[in-house]
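Structure (tokenized):
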């Protein structure tokens, strides 16, 4: 019975239950794509149908992760299939559970307002934005923003964080950023500002059909 209640997996060489960060990032990318596309449909077509499905599935998936087991989460299973040929990167299961509890709270609130009550408001908009930011940072950078609160609320230190960020260590040369590189970033931002000021009018013009492929389709 104790084994069934365990959250995470026991892996040789790790003294606490862990999870595979690679499949977690893959799952986060899938959820981000679905929610982002749902948001685009709301913004440009005022269509909430996909959003309601996405919220319901999001909540269901996170409830399974937290209250059943991550190994039975549909999105994590799909993520595992996608990255099955990659070497696992193990992270502590405890802080991930805390982060996913936050996910349950956020998606549960969205479900109540948008699905059960069938309404939208600044509350649902802000929560949706938070979810997108959390999922984007997880999938793109491997940074679990919700896990950052774990150390503040609990005395114990998080173990086995992605990229070993929990361990205090000196950066390797390849990780260091020089002043020249920082200057390049600043110049690039200035370049973007310059483009927007000089060519914004040109960029706003709608492109024309170079080969006339779509003209016939429009006239039908």
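Design, position by position:
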């Amino acid at each position: 019975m104790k084994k069934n209640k365990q959250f995470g997996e026991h892996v040789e060489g790790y003294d606490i239950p862990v999870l595979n960060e690679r499949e977690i990032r893959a799952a986060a990318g899938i959820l981000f794509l679905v929610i982002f596309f749902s948001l685009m449909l709301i913004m440009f077509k005022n269509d909430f149908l996909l959003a309601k499905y996405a919220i319901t599935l999001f909540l269901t998936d996170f409830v399974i992760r937290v209250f059943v087991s991550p190994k039975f989460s549909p999105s994590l299973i799909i993520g595992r299939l996608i990255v099955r040929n990659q070497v696992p990167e193990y992270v502590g299961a405890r802080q991930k559970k805390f982060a996913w509890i936050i996910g349950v709270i956020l998606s549960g609130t969205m479900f109540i307002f948008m699905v059960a009550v069938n309404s939208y408001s600044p509350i649902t908009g802000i929560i949706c934005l938070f979810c997108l930011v959390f999922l984007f940072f997880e999938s793109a950078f491997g940074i679990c923003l919700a896990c950052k609160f774990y150390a503040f609320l609990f005395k114990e230190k998080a173990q086995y964080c992605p990229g070993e960020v929990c361990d205090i260590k000196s950066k390797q040369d390849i990780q260091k950023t020089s002043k020249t590189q920082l200057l390049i970033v600043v110049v690039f931002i200035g370049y973007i500002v310059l483009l927007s000021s000089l060519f914004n009018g040109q960029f706003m013009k709608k492109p024309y059909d170079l080969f006339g492929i779509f003209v016939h389709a429009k006239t039908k």
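Reviewer-requested clarification: The helical segments are 21-45, 49-68, 74-82, 93-116, 122-141, 148-153, 179-204, 215-219. The radius of gyration is 22 Å.
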